[in-house]
Amino acid sequence: MIELKDIHPQFITDENGRKTSVVLPIDAFEALIEDIEDLAVVAERRDEPTVSHEEMVAELKRDGLIQD
């Protein structure tokens, strides 16, 4: 996950010196959007049942997606 100290934001201020907008490098912006999308998926799936690692590996093997 991206951290604020790593993106070096620049702020746009109004005539009173209050921050009104922020300018980010495009790669930092894209990383933030990706993190937000990932968090949205996690939130949507919060109530879904879970399976153990062993069950998942067995299912992937059954489906031929991984081999022994």
Give a verbal description of the structure:
- Helices cover 49% and strands 13% of the residues.
- It has 68 residues and is α+β, with helices and mostly antiparallel strands.
- The protein has one domain.
- The chain has a two-stranded antiparallel sheet.
- A hairpin with a 5-residue loop joins strand 1 (10-13) and strand 2 (19-23).
- The two termini are 32 Å apart.
At a glance:
With 68 residues, this protein is an alpha+beta fold.
Biggest beta-sheet profile: 2 strands, antiparallel
What percentage of amino acids are in beta strands? 5-15%
Task: Summarize the helix and strand pattern as letters.
Answer: HEEHH
Q: Count the E strands.
A: 2
* Overall spatial form: elongated
Strand order of the largest sheet: 1-2
Number of domains: 1
Count of separate DSSP helical elements: 3
**Unreliable sequence segments:** none
Radius of gyration computed on alpha carbons: 21 Å
Could you report the average pLDDT, rounded to the nearest whole number? 93
How many angstroms separate the termini?
32 Å
Helix- and strand-based class?
alpha+beta
Organism: Thioalkalivibrio denitrificans
InterPro entries: RelB-like (IPR049537)
Protein name: Prevent-host-death family protein
Question: What are its keywords?
Answer:
68 residues, single chain, Prevent-host-death family protein, alpha+beta, RelB-like
Give a topology summary.
Layout: H1 4-7, E1 10-13, E2 19-23, H2 26-44, H3 53-62
Antiparallel strand pairs: 1-2
Organism: Thioalkalivibrio denitrificans
Protein name: Prevent-host-death family protein
